[in-house]
Write a structure and sequence with these properties.
2 copies of one chain form a homodimer. The first copy, chain A, folds into 2 domains: 26-113, Leucine Dehydrogenase, chain A, domain 1 (Rossmann fold, 3-Layer(aba) Sandwich), CATH 3.40.50.10860; 138-271, Rossmann fold, CATH 3.40.50. Helices cover 40% and strands 16% of the residues of chain A. The first copy, chain A, is built from 10 helices and 10 strands. In chain A, the strands form 3 sheets. In chain A, strands 5-4-6-7-10 form a 5-stranded parallel sheet, with helices on both faces. A 3-stranded parallel sheet of chain A has the order 2-1-3, with helices on one face. In chain A, strands 8-9 form a two-stranded antiparallel ribbon. In chain A, strand 1, helix 2 (42-58) and strand 2 form a beta-alpha-beta unit. In chain A, helix 2 crosses helix 10 (270-288) and helix 6 (138-149) crosses helix 7 (169-177). The longest helix of chain A has 21 residues, at 5-25. The N and C termini of chain A lie far apart (39 Å). The interface between A and B is large, with 36 and 35 residues.
Chain lengths: 289, 289
């Protein structure tokens, strides 16, 4: 069965839209998300544009703050402080990557954790890990929602997460092994030093691929009926395509989908969930603060 | 081979003692640790007493703050704020458990993360998880030090952590799978919902037991040459002992030690490392702030 991220993310957006309409009808200010974009990177422009449009769709206020790529670190920090102090703003994101002369860590640490709807600030990450109320990073949050809404059993299942990045592999490995819906799995976190990865994936009930290696996972690496979550999105050159590339996941979808019980496609799986969960976090920020 | 926590913790204390002597000889203030103890719980008194004596041994300043068990939450918070503002204090711990009428979470969140040498504050936990400079909780920090000082290979090894508590299982599962010395293991976190635990432990190169079930791990549950870390400390009734109890770990030491390549005894393994690493964190607090 296909875990349809496009459909599910649309459902979530509709739910948010209804909540916002109800807030407005009670005379309340709608949630307000700002996005900080430094420079003119094409992919970043696309992502941020899509986030802003999604805000408008669900009825959020949104602000796009575009800054020159030669902005100094101090000036950017000045903007961050302004956003932290803005009482009419519930949450904001700083689109990565930032230009090389700016220390990303320093910028992310300057974001008020209460407005950190990306969930990248250590204070949020720690709260999530210690099972306190927290903004969960959008991609792992989206995976948890997909599993939950499709009633995919996770309790006591062996889940292998491949890739230990801070924004996907690490947090999803933590969330899947915590108590709660879509949790209570026995989780193994695999990475570049893992030996005999196939031995691990072949015994897994659930495999979450967050590696960034196109079509890495083949049918002979999984067991019959496994649940496959594909977080990979790599641009692969394709001259037959008008854009000159196509997007590939970490999973050989064609062959793996025949053996899997549930599988996320790429595109249309985890990807669309990410924006929906950013909106969800912004709504939570509005409710919590 | 026995991983001798008593010997290793003594080595670490000697190293700290030398560093402190050198600080003092340069006219610098030595590190200063405070411990807050609410009420008269016997075990807590023992632990805190031992921490204070260790401070004195290595040349730290130490302050024991004893408060009545009927102190209000507000008054305790007032003490916490005072400690946060005390420039002559590098770190402090609030001995748990607190009386039932006090919200532990609220108290722990009030501790300035810069003085949180127990490493329990979410801001520290998040920093640790995101591989930033952080105070690592003493027990997992002690395990990492034992593995490092005995040159136990971990890179690419399969490590099974049994127990997902916030103070041991969760953090050690994170640390063992991060980059760095004693890291880069492929870690599986097992817990109460894990099925066929023996199948997992039998394939593990390293097993970390943090379950609190006396002598749970038997020889037939491990493979020949496995590394065994026993975090369990349970008091088991024993009328032949003057105290009326003996301390048991989670491992059937007698039989498991014959099959293991490295093993920590109980007592004298992980336990003594905990205080040493609290001292280490206090020294780091002195150096960082």
């Amino acid at each position: 069965m296909v875990l349809d991220g496009k459909k599910t993310s649309n459902e979530i957006k509709e739910e948010i839209k209804i909540t916002v309409a109800s807030m407005k009808s009670r005379g309340q200010r709608p949630p307000h998300l700002a996005a900080v974009l430094v420079g003119n990177d094409g992919a970043s422009l696309t992502y941020v544009g899509s986030k802003v449009r999604s805000c408008e769709y669900v009825g959020f206020d949104s602000t796009l703050i575009r800054l020159e790529s030669n902005i100094t670190e101090d000036d950017l920090l000045q903007h961050i402080r302004g956003l932290n102090e803005d009482d009419n703003l519930d949450g904001y994101i700083v689109q990565l990557p930032l230009p090389k002369h700016i220390n990303e860590e320093k910028i992310l640490l300057a974001i008020d954790p209460k407005k950190d709807v990306d969930g990248f600030h250590p204070a949020n990450f720690g709260r999530m890990t210690l099972e306190l109320k927290a903004f969960i990073p959008a991609t792992p949050f989206g995976i948890m929602q997909l599993l939950e809404r499709y009633n995919v059993p996770t309790k006591g299942k062996h889940c292998v997460v491949v890739g230990r990045s801070h924004i996907v592999g690490r947090p999803i490995s933590i969330l899947m092994s915590q108590k709660g819906i879509s949790g209570n799995a026995t989780v193994t976190l695999a990475h570049s030093h893992t030996k005999n990865l196939e031995d691990l994936t072949r015994t897994a009930d659930i495999i979450i691929m967050a590696l960034g290696m196109p079509e890495f996972l083949k049918a002979n690496m999984i067991k019959e009926g496994a649940v496959i979550i594909d977080v990979g999105i790599t641009r692969v050159q394709d001259n037959n395509n008008a854009k000159g590339y196509i997007i590939k996941g970490d999973v050989s979808y064609e062959e793996v989908s025949k053996k899997a019980s549930f599988i996320t496609p790429v595109p249309g799986g985890v990807g669309p969930m990410t924006i929906a969960m950013l909106l969800k976090n912004t709504l939570l920020a509005r409710e919590w603060n």
